[in-house]
Amino acid sequence: MEAQTSSGKEEERVWLESLLNKFARDNSVASILEFNLKQAVPEGVNYASIINRAKLTVILHNGQESKLSVIMKKAHEDKEKLETLSAIPIFKSEIKVYNEILRKFETLMNEYEDYNEKLWCNLIGYQNYDLIVLEDLKLTNYVIADRKKRLDLNHSKLVLHSLGRLHALGYILIQKGLLSKEDLPPFYCDISFIVMDRLYKCGLITLSKVIEKYWTPEWKEIGKRLSKEHEVVIEKHKRLFQPQENDFITMCHGDCWTCNMMFKYSPFEENYPISLKFLDFQTTHINVYIFDVLYFLFVSVQPEVRRSNFDQLLSVYQKSLQTALANYGFEDRTPSLKNVQSEAVRAEYYGLTCSLVLSPIGAAQQAGDFKIEYLND
């Protein structure tokens, strides 16, 4: 009787395997009939690459005609833009993240039966090292929020909850020896003189001049203080990025702002986000978690929301990190809320400079107010 049962199960296994293979093949693309390429995002949403949407009419292997859409992300060909980005291997890094590291995340989630939704889109393929083809999240109702308005409390909580999950996965890979600091380039604030000198340093110089010349008299003293700060901003950043004892090191996104994430919304409540996907892993690196957290809070969150709910938002992040780590057996490694708050205080200068220099770029009203090649001037 047992032999018959085993034989029956084996027959079912073979039949199911054949069925799944047929299903996958029937629904795969046999040929492309039409191919139309259009710009996927307006100027001011993405600075470091060209984002196009390819709309396709295809024939599937089952003979059915179907409409598809994919995102094609290309490296800039403009010499001025390439000069600015020359110190940061953004496409090589992003391909490695999608093709290797995020696949390891998925393997880890599968192994531990973590059925939470993935925090990234699917990689379809790539061409070394100037083209990446990705799933078009617009087809599943994901959209980019309005960078000019910045994010409200509900959006901010979802981002920090998601960031806690992402950081947990990165930390676990590091602890398992499946990811190391050498696998990714250092943070651009560590290695790119152009970015630090012309974005942060020159940004503070420009801001101080604008304040002194155009703002009301009570701001003049602030302008003078900022004019002196540009002399030390690079050195202060270098000190901040030096490893500290007992740091919680993970894979940081590196550019966690409004236009590098897409939201899906509730069908029952207006503007209520229910799901998130991170985009643009071009400056992803290994670092202390707090820099991702502060970058997001000071660049993309509405200032009044951040100021009124700062501790609550840190708590959302910490609880998500703890829950995710607990699911993988690493709960005892979670930084306490007190630790997270202490780290936020330690690195608050980074948040300040992000707020002064990057936040105005992120919320610029005109698309051409900032272009990556401006850093060459």
From TrEMBL:
It comes from the Eukaryota. Residues 132-327 form the CHK kinase-like domain. It holds the Pfam family EcKL. One of its GO terms (molecular function) is kinase activity. InterPro entries: CHK_kinase-like, EcKL, Kinase-like_dom_sf. Keywords: Kinase, Transferase. This is Putative ecdysteroid kinase. The lineage of its organism: Eukaryota, Metazoa, Ecdysozoa, Arthropoda, Hexapoda.
